[in-house]
Design a protein that fits this description.
Elements: H1 3-15, H2 23-30, H3 34-46, E1 51-54, E2 58-61, H4 74-90, H5 93-108, H6 112-119, H7 139-148, E3 150-157, E4 163-175, E5 180-186, E6 191-196, E7 200-209, H8 214-227
Antiparallel strand pairs: 1-2, 3-4, 3-7, 4-5, 5-6
Length: 239
C-alpha cells in the first residue's frame, strides 16, 4: 500500500468509528506497526485533519473534515445499498469486506435525504440462503488472473465428475444464487465456456497474458450467448 493510500485508508477507518480507536487497534486493522500509526496520525493532523486523542487512550476524527456531498437521490442510494447487501451475501470474504468499506465511504458523503434512505431502506436483499459450495481455489486467485489477463491451467471436474485439464483465458466471475462460475475462453474446446468455481480442484497461472483485450472477449461471449439464445448464459461447463 502506498503512503497516500495508507493515509486515506486511515482517515476512512477513523471516519467509520464513533468511539476513539487505540493505535494498537488501528495498527491491527491496517496491518501496519503502531509506530507507523503514530507517524501517520501526526502527518494527518499537520495537514488539517481534525483528529483528537493521544497515545494510550485512542484517536477519533471530529467534525471539521468535509467532503462535497455525493449527489445521489434516495432511489439511487437504495439501489447502491441493495447491490452492496447482495455482495456481502454472495461474495467471498474479500468482496464482503470491500462492500462494507464502500458503504462507509459512500454514506460519509451523502446528502441528508440519501442518508435517510440508507438508514431506513424500503428495499432489502432478503435472506442469505444456504451458502455456496466450498471452493478449493480461492476466488481471489481467480480474480487476480482475470485482472492481469493471464492464462490459467485448471484441473476441473464436470457435472458427472469426469476430470479434465483445461488451459483457459479467465474473463469474469459470475455470482448465481447457488453457485459461482468463471467465464473463460477454453483452449481445449476452442470456444467460450463457464466453469463452476467449486469444481476447480487446482489452478496455476501460466505467467502468459492471453491475446486480445478482455473487454473484446467479453463482448464476444455475450454475442455467442445471444446467438445460442441461452436463457441462463452462466450455465457451467458440462463437456
Amino acid at each position: 500500500m502506498s503512503r497516500t493510500s495508507r493515509l486515506l485508508t486511515l482517515l476512512q477507518v477513523l471516519r467509520a468509528r464513533s468511539r476513539p480507536a487505540t493505535a494498537a487497534a488501528l495498527a491491527q486493522e491496517l496491518e501496519i506497526s503502531e509506530r507507523t500509526v503514530y507517524r501517520d496520525i501526526a502527518e494527518l493532523t499537520a495537514l488539517g485533519a481534525p483528529i483528537q486523542g493521544e497515545a494510550g487512550i485512542g484517536y477519533v476524527l471530529r467534525s471539521g473534515l468535509f467532503l462535497p456531498p455525493l449527489m445521489l437521490d434516495a432511489d439511487e442510494a437504495e439501489a447502491i445499498m441493495l447491490g452492496l447487501q447482495y455482495v456481502t451475501q454472495r461474495g467471498d470474504d474479500v468482496l464482503g469486506k470491500a462492500a462494507c468499506g464502500a458503504l462507509a465511504k459512500i454514506s460519509a458523503v451523502l446528502g441528508p435525504a440519501a442518508q435517510e434512505a440508507l438508514r431506513n431502506p424500503t428495499v432489502l436483499a432478503g435472506p442469505a440462503g444456504y451458502g455456496f459450495p466450498e471452493n478449493i481455489v480461492p476466488l481471489s486467485v481467480l480474480r487476480q488472473a482475470i485482472g492481469q489477463q493471464t492464462k490459467l491451467y485448471i484441473d476441473y471436474a464436470d457435472a458427472n465428475q469426469v476430470p479434465s485439464q483445461r488451459l483457459i483465458w479467465p474473463l469474469a466471475l459470475g455470482f448465481l444464487n447457488e453457485v459461482r462460475v468463471i467465464v473463460a475462453w477454453c483452449e481445449l474446446r476452442n470456444d467460450y465456456r463457464t466453469f463452476r468455481t467449486d469444481r476447480i480442484a487446482a489452478a496455476c497461472e501460466q505467467g502468459e497474458r492471453y491475446p486480445g483485450r478482455r473487454s473484446d472477449l467479453l463482448r464476444g461471449w455475450h454475442a455467442a450467448c445471444e446467438r445460442m439464445q441461452r436463457v441462463q448464459p452462466f450455465t457451467p461447463d458440462k463437456n
